[in-house]
Amino acid sequence: HHFSVFFSPLTEPEEGEAWSNLASAYIKLKKKDFAFNALQEALKHSYENWKMWENFLYVSMDIGQVTHAMQ
Length: 71
What we know:
The chain is mainly alpha-helical. The chain has five helices and no strands.
């Protein structure tokens, strides 16, 4: 949860895309735990975005957080 201190000003609904982009960067860096957290934040702002849900599902399964993926 280290990144939340630096990115806490992202509170507007349109910022879901920014969180998703951050998650993508973490995925490329092989830091899927951080990507998982970033995608959780992205979905708070863009709940209806199916692509973010798809990415969240894949990352959740990759890091063994399947229960989160099914909620």
